[in-house]
Amino acid sequence: MDMSVLIALPVIIPLIFGALSLVVLNNHGAQRLLGMLGTTAVLAAAILLLWQTQIHGIKVLEVGSWPAPFGIVLVSDLLGAIMVLLAAITGFATAIYSLKTVRKRFERFGYYPLLHLLLAGVNGAFLTGDIFNLYVWFEVLLVASFALLIQGGERAQMEGAIKYVTLNLLSSAIFLTAIGLLYGMVGSLNMADIAVRLTAVEDPKMVTLVAMLFLIAFSIKAAAFPLFFWLPASYHTPQVAVSAIFAGLLTKVGVYALYRVFSLMFTGEVEFTHQILLWMAVFTMLTGVLGAASQYEVRRILSFHIVSQIGYMMLALALFTPLALIGGVFYIMHHIIVKANLFFVAGMMYRLGGSFELKELGGLYKKHPGLAVLFLIPAFSLAGVPPLSGFFAKFILIKAGVEAGAWWAVAVALFVGLFTLFSMIKIWNEAFWKKAPEPAIEIPAPVRNKALYWTTGILASMTIAIGLFAQPIYVLAEMAANQLLNPQLYIEAVLGGGQP
Amino acid sequence: MTTLMAILIGCLYAASIYMMLRRSMVKLLIGLILLSNAANLLIFTVAGLERGVPPLIAQGAETITGPTADPLAQALILTAIVIAFGVLAFAVVLLHRAYEVIKTDDMNEMKGTD
Amino acid sequence: MSRQFNMRSLILSTGTTIILPLLLLFSLFLLLRGHDEPGGGFIGGLVAAAAIALKLFADDYPSAKSLLRVHPLQIVGVGLAIAALSSLPSLFVGDNFFTAQWWSLDIPIFGTLKLSTPLFFDIGVFLGVIGTVLTAIFTLVEVEH
């Protein structure tokens, strides 16, 4: 047994724990225990995987000993391993947070199994080296997210879920179409093999056409302009723990897929494809932040900010310079933690203040100063205030934009940063600073809950740590970006017989 | 034959998009079903429409003789069908429950979260 | 309620008592036949789920549910666990993850029994399909009630 099995662990562990917690469906205690054990195990496996990948370079596992490019391979390059670690952190935090917030009713309808399944799907998507397998993992995580989204069955959830399901199924069908056309062109499904064979395709226009289909499919999943509206229509409807893991992870799987295919496979007509990406990034940033400005419900503001942040990540891919990709990877690392944390904090604001509506909230600073600090850290980080993680992420990205001469995009990115700060201050003023309004209904005495404070506290300290120790994170991002810019490394690792 | 299939697939895509743009939830569902069928037929067609034999090497022979069908495309379609089956089963349950909660089939009435 | 299953037919009900065990047996046959001939866990699972759905139509929801004894999602869990665990034995003999392992057991009188990890994977798929299909059907019936 060698270390390559490590690549399979982040996928197989949640599957096994998900299956076990389905078996003990009626035993809530066992489900929670399995939830904690499973996410802890995934976290441990993810840390090991990233460590090993950083030392030994890209690792490849030929599943079932079927040699590439014929069998399915799992590949762990640095981007994939970093994403898996972030998913594991988010999953772990969600599991702790769920202990106290998820109602028994939802546990009986399979909350924990779905959580495990979601993690398996996300990790599978990050690690697979096969384009059709990527589709399968996308569907796994989608089905799990569908079911999590409608738990509770309220009207708003149903309406949100119909939009979410329709747009995501449309995107999956486009993805499948693109895979079909690609297979017709090159006759392979292994991404490294496709990358090699695409260089020999006679008609580069056809390749670009398929690339555009992939772009449409993944940008729907990433909630990029113009087809992003399913996200703010649905993300605020489920329970907070679900919103948080969705906000942290799901759109980023779409972003990851964009990074993967547009750095590995479709690099033939960069001027054309990445120009489109640039415009999409600019509009995604703008529409997201302007949408947030008009909202007065905490979770909806945060949802619109997911859209605007996706724009930054796409901007990095669009610029496609070494510095920009470093910024992009850094941005993803910063964003997943901050975004999930903000939703967790929103959930605590609801528990302590009784509402998600800014108009009905108030006086939280006076009553719960600890919560106020926990809100300020991720909120300022999101807006890009130094020395928090978001500052460095934005700084690298904007520097890359200036170097690439994309002045328009830089101007928009700065403007959006300012507006993000405006949104965060809006929440701060309304929910924390202003006097508490006369409650229309008596709020039940809030229970201080240590587990929730721990969850958000850990994530907030990670945000600070990324800011304070930006140098090692930068080096890691630089190595990941280096692998993205040299797809030859990936191709050699996969097709060179792997590391059996 | 391939031209004919291409036209058929194009019609299926067009019909599915048309159905998805209608206001009724049931038509939306029909649109989704047609869409997955169109994608599957597309894979089937691009893999080559030849009258081939199963890709099995006969006993005693070293290589396959004659044209063979591409098994991988068929495996893809089979997987995609199974996935579409699961997802659409979920969509049926979702739409039914949504109908029970919202009490309408009209998508224009579902503006609560916009 | 007027929309309940009140279309009970004596013929269907009596027929089901005979057909149901046959269908379940047939589903097992399909499962094992899938080893190297057309068949397999997925199609076997569909047949078994159809058999239980037939019970639902012939009799009523409670009797179909009691036939299963457990929640269909628990069956999915068992199936998924078997399928996922079938990937692990390869690790103990030093092969790559998920490599198929074959064993043959000599049982007196009956002859040789061939076991393999793909068989266990298929059994997992079989249970998973039964559970998934029945969850969908039961959910629809519950909405109806």
UniProtKB/TrEMBL annotation, chain A:
Topological relation to the membrane, as annotated: Multi-pass membrane protein
Chain ranges passing through the membrane: 6-26, 33-51, 71-97, 109-128, 134-152, 164-186, 206-228, 240-262, 274-294, 306-326, 371-393, 405-425, 451-477
Domain of life according to the entry: Bacteria
Matches recorded under Pfam families: Proton_antipo_M
Stretches assigned to the NADH:quinone oxidoreductase/Mrp antiporter transmembrane domain: 130-420
Annotated keywords: Cell membrane, Membrane, Transmembrane, Transmembrane helix
Localization in the cell: Cell membrane; Membrane
Similarity field: Belongs to the CPA3 antiporters (TC 2.A.63) subunit D family.
Record's protein name: Cation:proton antiporter
TrEMBL record, chain B:
Gene3D superfamilies the UniProt entry points to: 1.10.287.3510
Subcellular location: Cell membrane
Transmembrane segments: 6-21, 28-49, 72-95
Keywords: Cell membrane, Membrane, Transmembrane, Transmembrane helix
Principal location listed in the UniProt entry: membrane
Bilayer topology annotation: Multi-pass membrane protein
PANTHER family hit by this protein: ANTIPORTER SUBUNIT MNHC2-RELATED
Similarity comment text for this entry: Belongs to the CPA3 antiporters (TC 2.A.63) subunit C family.
Name of the protein in its database record: Cation:proton antiporter
Organism: Alishewanella longhuensis
Lineage: Bacteria, Pseudomonadati, Pseudomonadota, Gammaproteobacteria, Alteromonadales
Gene: mrpC
TrEMBL record, chain C:
Superkingdom of origin organism: Bacteria
Pfam families: MnhB (PF04039)
Residue spans crossing the bilayer: 12-32, 38-58, 70-93, 119-141
Compartments reported by the entry: Cell membrane
Keywords annotated in UniProt: Cell membrane, Membrane, Transmembrane, Transmembrane helix
Keyword Glycosyltransferase: no
The keyword Membrane is assigned to this record: yes
Residue stretches making up the Na+/H+ antiporter MnhB subunit-related protein domain: 11-135
Signal sequence range: none
InterPro entries recorded: CPA3_antiporter_subunitB, MnhB
Membrane topology value: Multi-pass membrane protein
Cross-referenced NCBIfam families: PRK12509.1
Family the entry assigns: Belongs to the CPA3 antiporters (TC 2.A.63) subunit B family.
Official protein name in the record: Na(+)/H(+) antiporter subunit B
Annotated organism of origin: Alishewanella longhuensis
